[in-house]
Amino acid sequence: MRVALFVTCVNDTLFPDTGRAVVRLLRRLGVEADFPRAQTCCGQMHANTGYRDEAVRLARRGVAALRGYDAVVVPSGSCAAMIREQYPKLAGTRGPFADAVARVVPRTYELTEFLVDVLGVTDVGAYFPHRVTYHPTCHSLRGLHLGDRPLTLLRQVKGLELVPLPGAEECCGFGGTFALKNADVSAAMCADKVRAVLDTGAEVLCAADNSCLMHIGGMLGRQKSGVRVMHLAEILCSTETAGVR
Amino acid sequence: MSVTFLGMPADRPFPRNAARAVRDSQLRFNLRKATRTIRARRASVVAEAPDWAGLREAGRAIKEHTLRNLDRYLMQLEEAVTAAGGHVHWAADAAEANRIVADLVKATGETEVVKVKSMATQEIGLNEALLEHGVTAYETDLAELIVQLGDDRPSHILVPAIHRNRAEIREIFAEHMSGWGRPAPGDLTDDPEALAEAARLHLRERFLKTKVAISGANFAIAETGTMVVLESEGNGRMCLTLPRTLISVVGIEKVLPSWRDLEVFLQLLPRSSTGERMNPYTSMWTGAAEGQEFHLVLLDNGRTRVLADEVGRQALRCIRCSACLNVCPVYERTGGHAYGSVYPGPIGAILTPQLRGMGSELDRSLPYASSLCGACYDVCPVAIDIPSVLVDLRARARHPWPERAGMAAAGWVFERPGRLAGLQRAGGRLRRLVPRRLPGPLAGWTDTRDLPEVPRESFREWWDRTDGGRR
Asked: Average pLDDT of B36-57?
């Protein structure tokens, strides 16, 4: 099975630890992922802000970069949802672009889908002795319908104490450029999410999206709360002998 | 093209209205309490329904079919209503609808009308228009009464006074009821029963005196010409039965083909809106009863334009249940007034700019009044994919130039992996120079949040340096 890692521009540029964690985790499970160098950004920011032409250009580049693989693993619910839900709309029904999208879409998996559905693994042999709470991001929850997959994986992590997050299914207020265009509402939503996180007494907040975590973590940091945010992949990659970095 | 009026002035853009609303702690408290209560109630009655997904799909399909054949069903409706002794009028826009209603009222010689809660008449600003013709309209829905007495604007489709708590309502009743009819008792408390009793006495007098009523309709059955109104208080039924003349202003998208279609919607609507298995009062009437007169005003007001849009037309499936408002994290924090339309919340964010067009700064900002979290789509009983329509409207909005420049720059970088890698290398070198506070529109981030630390090395660089961690 030829597997491509679509790392996403946010992880590539700002959170390389997450990309490294995915590569090492997959290697531990016997999968050597490729990193197709032509990839850049899925185009979600442009699409969701109303710049369709740019989004189409980036989507064309994206599917071209991912051509020929049996599976594409994306460590972001949001970017995976972009490829699966929006690419078909951007591509239309006919032509080479539409054909390329039709080939890539059914092979695109968010990380936890790839682990649970394709590899059939729920215990990835991780060790992470911390109190952790999980925030199901909107696109992984309502877009991809990841369901229990992330929690199932977290429950198998040795030493990890999983605490439920109150109001977990409510949006954190990131929403891409929403955080800038409606900064006051975004911050008000984030403040409620931060309060919920602090109420759990967790040391670490994890999610399947670093962009949402950047937003919640940014406020946790500004408030000097001491709570860390971590992508799910980094927790699943941790073992007794090796940390993430 | 005439400007479509939607019952509210459209002046300031949504983010500015919202910024003010999120700082109003009383408003935030009222909204949080109310939306969370109704949200939980809806969730429980939807969960117990044996086949909600099937019901929702049936609702979607019936509405879709009707909209595709709207011309045919509207003609059929007109025929059936006329055959049952009613009169049908067609109104292209708010001004025409208001003129028709005003003329009908004036023809009766009356100067007072009672009103059943209706979004269509809110949309066209009927009360204000009637006042110009010397006709006073009295709202009889409890929440609409609160809004009218308080000289306020509705902030929710179903619960227009959701932004008020009971202490505020007591004050409004005590101060303003006397100006509109029977005054509130001198010892009025903010006990819900006492407030309801004060409203009941005030309204009963009005029902007995008034000879003309104005309503909307939740559904209009083409097959039989039957109008259907769902409500909780019974005040609507008073208006629909007591007066001699009844005028119903109904949006053209409210038509349903046949009587049996109601089976689906009488289940979908109460569970989605008030969170009840069944609403307390369902009134239906066909044509005019003996000794009464019935007029149906069919309202377009921008709807046929929306119908022509392949993506946006699904907004016309809306049955005004408000489930999307109650579940929306943005609405919960801003309330309805920020949307500058009688249609607030997620459905308002897609309906208002389509009906009114995107000429004003407010209307251009509405499609962005969402984090695209998708909660609205999940709860919509007729499966309107609100996030997709929002994204589609965003693609048609005119964008401010600094944003266009930023997006063009980002697009240029992402077009070539080499450019992205170059930027990442520069970022890694200059990482210590990133300020804690960013200027301009980016300050919205750093006012409340730290920026992430820029890593020394991007993933791409790491992959090249270590051959994907193998070296």
From this structure: 97
Domain membership flag for residue A135? yes
pLDDT at B8: 62
**Residue B312 DSSP label:** G
Question: Which residue in this structure is represented by tokens 């609702």?
Answer: B59
**Exposed / middle / buried, residue B418 (Cβ in 10 Å: 0-12, 13-18, 19+):** exposed
Q: Which of B9-18, B167-176, B186-195 has the lowest mean pLDDT?
A: B9-18
Structure tokens at B62: 């019936």
Distance from CA of B446 to the nearest CA of A (A): 9
Q: What is the mean pLDDT of chain A?
A: 96
Q: How many whole angstroms separate alpha carbon B52 and alpha carbon B115?
A: 33
pLDDT confidence of residue B441: 83
Residue A82 sits in the same domain as residue A189: no
CA torsion sign for A136, B37, B153, B127 is positive
What local confidence, expressed as pLDDT, does residue B9 receive?
A: 56
B196-222 average pLDDT score: 96
- Are B21 and B144 part of one and the same domain? yes
Chain A residues touching residue B413 (CB < 8 angstroms): 40
With residue A223 as reference, give the H or E element that holds it. Answer: none
Q: How confident is the model at residue A244 (pLDDT cuts 50, 70, 90)?
A: very low
Contact A218 B391 (CB under 8 A): no
Scanning the structure block, which residue is given the tokens 């919205």?
B444
A178 and A103 within one domain: no
Cα separations (Å) of B471 from A136, B97, B337? 35, 76, 60
Nearest to B146 by CA among B210, B216, B198: B198
Residue B471 clears pLDDT 90, i.e. is over it: no
Query: How many structural domains compose chain B?
Result: 2
Provide the domain limits for residue B171. Answer: 14-303
Check if the beta carbon of residue B247 is closer than 8 Å to that of residue B105: yes
Residues A103 and A7 in one domain: yes
A23, A180, A185 ranked by CB distance to B330: nearest: A185
Residues B108, B214, single domain; the answer is yes
